[in-house]
Amino acid sequence: MADTFKTLTAEQFASLDHSKYTLVDLREPAELIVSGIEGAINIPFSQFATKLDTIPKTKPVIVYCRVGEFSEEVADILSDRGYDVSHVAGGFKAYRELTEGKQSAKTVEEPEGASVPSEAAVSEPVFIDAKGLKCPGPIVKVSDFLSNQPAGTRIHVEATEDAFYSDIQIWCERTGNRLDAISFTDGVIKADITRQNAVPAAAASERHDKTFVVFSGDLDKTIAAFIMANGAAAMGRKVTVFFTFWGLNILRRAKKVRVKKTFIEKMFGRMMPRGTKKLGLSRMNMGGKGAKMIRKIMKKKGVSSLEELMQSAIDHGVRLVACQMSMDIMGIHKEELIDGVELGGVSTFLGSGEQSDMSLFI
Question: Starting from the edge strand earliest in sequence, which strands make up the sheet with 239-243, in order?
Fold first, then answer.
């Protein structure tokens, strides 16, 4: 295997001019929302077999995954097909840890051709305290403040969640705001940001909407869906969450609503969980004890509850759509759904999906 493809260390990969290579990112789309490499082609490992032929041979290829396991296998396959290919040992995780270590406490260089700061830009930055907040809280707090501010507004934000170091850099890059400086010392990440009106180059010609299909009614999967939905909304993306079959239980009101139902519909209603507080875990539910334990840990760690995440999503314009067909099958009536939900069908989902660069089925 060593003779058919090359293995790069994270240091070697970071030192290369990436524009001279075709980069293939094997991670799942959800992992790219806040961490990726510009210009890389995303081909999830789960879809690689069907998309192998889409990788061009015009330049040497470098493949990487999260920790380097899948990329080695893919590199071997590509080399058998005549590609000049390398893979990154340790994957994107090793590369990110290396680059973040080098960037710690650095000042971001002024972009070439940057405009002269306005009067607001030279004033003292506004302090944003995001310490103690958990994902997506810090990003949402920054987005909420800057979204209503004029160009040139400066902020100094401090956070204690390690992921914020990567998140805020990608958020600035993808939203067109300018990251002036960033540091990570004594467990506190400090970032200086200037509000910009410029649309990032990638957004000028592409649609970056996000669509999530929530089929599962499991608490853990639902929390993950709404964390991603809030994160995408904070980046200015149009987000649609489409609920179907068991996912509809997430949208049910906690209290019983008196509506006329058939015998079968009544039986369905009694057997299914009513509202978010009744959802169980996909693993280790233990008759509901697992779900209670997870909620207790989330509260202790300062992570927003599912109910708070859902309300935040609604407040930030995330579109919640209930599948009408699934509702009819499962005997759920519109009156039983929480406020802020609209009804839709397959065309609503497809219309949203066609305008999205990422659709996830949860």
Answer: 341-344, 319-323, 239-243, 209-214, 356-361
Please work out, in degrees rounded to the nearest 5, the angle formed at the alpha carbon of residue 313 by the alpha carbons of 305 and 244. Answer: 90
Bridge partners (DSSP) listed for residue 210: 239, 358
Cα-flanking dihedrals φ and ψ of residue 222, to 5°?
-70, -40
The one-letter code for the residue type at 316 is: H
CA distances from 71 to 23, 88, 232 (A): 11, 7, 27
**Considering only CA atoms, which of 335, 309, 289 is closest in space to residue 212?**
309
Please indicate, yes or no, whether the overall pTM of this predicted structure exceeds 0.70.
no
DSSP class per residue in 76-95: HHHHHTT--EEEETTHHHHH
Where do runs of H (alpha helix) occur along the chain? 10-15, 48-51, 69-80, 91-103, 137-146, 164-175, 201-205, 219-234, 263-271, 289-301, 306-315, 324-330, 346-354
- pLDDT tens per residue, range 71-124: 988 998 999 899 999 999 989 888 887 876 655 444 444 444 444 444 444 468
- Please name the residue that has the structure tokens 């290369």: 16
